[in-house]
Amino acid sequence: MMAQENVGATERIDAITLATADVVGSIKFYEALGFAISYGDASSSFVTLESGTCFVNLWEVKPDDLPATWWGRVIFHVDDVDSVYRRAVDANLSPQGAPADAPWGERFFAISDPSGHDLSFAKRIKN
Q1: What are the residue ranges spanned by the domains of the chain?
Q2: Does pTM surpass 0.90?
Q3: Is the dihedral of CA 71, 38, 14, 123 positive or negative?
């Protein structure tokens, strides 16, 4: 196997993003389980909580803003986001946009699987 074929390998599931209409209540729930806020706060529409090396992102939604089937997003950390993106495009898949650097310190792109599950492929970057 050529080394190039390994570029873009998935390293681990890093986080899950969950839709919530009650950010404050959700924060209290996860804090009670030992998670601590690492991005945003109770007044934010996007909050990250962490425990060890695991992250839970809370995304505030209004019931009419998203399809009823949207539940959240699974985030896979990879070694090279741009390579995974190119692999997806080369396979005629349809990412939701090109890789971008996010304010929370990750480079990522989002894509849905054939069943409509929302996925993100990301890598930590230094701010």
Answers
A1: 11-124
A2: no
A3: positive
